[in-house]
Every structure is written in C-alpha cells, then in structure tokens.
Design brief:
Layout lengths: L1 H25 L10 H8 L2 H23 L2 H7 L2 H9 L9 H19 L13 H18 L6 H28 L3 H5 L2 H22 L3 H23 L10 H24 L8
C-alpha cells in the first residue's frame, strides 16, 4: 500500500502543478466565453497552458499506476492533496498563500494522514466485482445531487457533486480494466464493457465539471467536486472491490480523519476562491 500512496501523492502534485500552470496560461490569453473555439485556439498557442496540460497527462498516468497497485479507498482520497500542492505552488506566479487557506491545507493533510495510517493493512483489489451495488449507489447519489440543481443557490454545488460521482465511477471502472492492460491482454481489454463505460463516463465527468463551473461561483462547485470524488471512491472501493474500510479498533479514527480532510479541503477551496486576486486589483 505504501507504493500506491507515494505514487498517488506524485499524481496529486502533478494535478496541482498542472492546474496552476493552466490557470496562469489561461490568464495570459484574451478572456472569452468558456469552450469558445477562439479560446481553445489561444490556449493551444500558450506555452504555460500547454506545459500544464502535459503535466496533467503525467498525473493521469501516475493515477492509473497508483490504482493498479493499491486500493481505490486509498488512492482517491490522496488525490485531494492536489489542491494543497496547487496552493503551495501559487507563489511562483505571484499569488501569495494567506494564513486561512494554509491552515486549512495543514488540517487536510493531518486528517488524511490519520485516515491512511489507521486503515487495515489487508487492503486488496478483489477480483469479485459487485458492480450492481456500485452502480445503484452511484445512480442514487447522482439523482440526489441533481435534485439540488433545481434550487438555484445549490445549482453549482449539485452539478459539482454529479461530476465528482461520475469521475469516481470512471476511476473505479479504469481500475477493474488495469489488470488486463498490465497482462498485455489488449484484445480482452477492448471487449470489456468497463473500458468503454469508463472512457464515456470520464468524458461526461469533464463536461459536467465545465457546466458546474459556469453555473455559479467557483468555490461551491469546486468544493463539491473535490469532496465527492474521494468520498465516492471510498464507497465504491468497499462495494465493488471488497476493500476494508471503517473497521477494526481504529474505525472511529479512520472516519474522523477522512471527514476532517474532506471538510478542510472544502473550506480550503471556498477560502481560496473568496479572497480577491491580487492581480485583479491592479
């Protein structure tokens, strides 16, 4: 499990660095409506944005490697550290780290550490998949989250939650396909429904994420997205892959550690996005 945690941590750093680089590059081109063709053309000519995209691709590769080595209940929660990494890298581009977000980042790290250290050591990616239970659980979560979008103040958060649930399910499907890829059984891999469903859900998750970002302020949608992905990852790890979590004498510590990390990362997002950008004040 140690190797999967370290690789997932590297993936989180890559995702955080990629986000900072892409954000910096996006601010150097003309402001346009999201997904406008001219915006895409401008970004494809922006070196910082392209570098961020390349770093993101590296992060995806590390994420897949971590999933192949360790439980979903471990890898997905570690990825919340991408926000912490992004926060710490912001000063490189003239965006100072303020005390409030820094405190939230420290609490996130401590909560996640408590969760990981107290997890049972018999974590395995079981081959017996209970996809029916996993699919039903995710459909219920999507339905509940989507119902929130009918209330305008919660629309962005609801859509962010839908995106997080869909992306978590995509990661679970990818994990189930990785053994075939590692064994070089490409023909068998191409015939699995998990591969194509995972790709489709990944694309859908990215699209819903963009819709969530456009539905309101960035803080609520990004917070919901960031919290829902690891939470649903833990749920799917338990339901689909028989991974042990919240059990044994340290069950309460595991639960409190994960909840602390998720609440703190949500506060981190909201604090960071509620503070005025020093560059926008000039």
């Amino acid at each position: 499990m140690v190797a999967s945690v370290l690789i997932a941590l590297l993936a989180a750093v890559a995702f955080g660095a990629g986000a900072v680089l892409q954000h910096h590059g996006a601010n150097l081109v003309a402001r346009r409506f999201p997904l406008h063709p001219a915006l895409v053309q401008d970004l494809l000519r922006q070196p910082w944005w392209l570098l961020g995209t390349l770093v993101d691709v590296v992060g995806v590769g590390l994420h897949m490697l971590a999933l192949s080595l360790g439980p979903l209940t471990v890898v997905q929660p570690v990825l919340v550290l991408s926000l912490v990494a992004g926060l710490l890298l912001q000063p490189l581009f003239g965006r100072p780290v303020r005390r409030g977000p820094l405190v939230s980042a420290c609490v996130t790290v401590l909560g996640l550490a408590a969760f990981l250290v107290t997890l049972p050591r018999n974590q395995t990616a079981a081959t017996s998949a209970h996809w029916t239970a996993g699919m039903v659980a995710t459909l219920v979560l999507v339905a509940v989250a989507y119902s929130l979008t009918r209330w305008p103040p919660a629309r962005a958060a609801g859509l962010g939650t839908v995106a997080g649930v869909v992306l978590s399910l995509s990661a679970a499907l990818a994990k189930s396909s990785l053994p075939l890829l590692a064994a070089g059984m490409l023909g068998d891999l191409l015939r699995t429904w998990q591969l194509w469903a995972g790709c489709a859900l990944g694309a859908a998750g990215v699209l819903v994420t963009q819709i969530a970002f456009q539905a309101g302020a960035l803080g609520p949608s990004l917070a919901a997205l960031t919290v829902s992905q690891p939470a649903v990852g833990v749920l799917l790890g338990a339901l689909v892959f028989d991974e042990t979590v919240f059990s044994g004498p340290t069950a309460v510590v595991q639960l409190l550690g994960l909840l602390t990390a998720l609440v703190s990362v949500a506060v981190l997002v909201i604090r960071t996005n509620s503070e005025p950008d020093s560059k926008d004040r000039h």
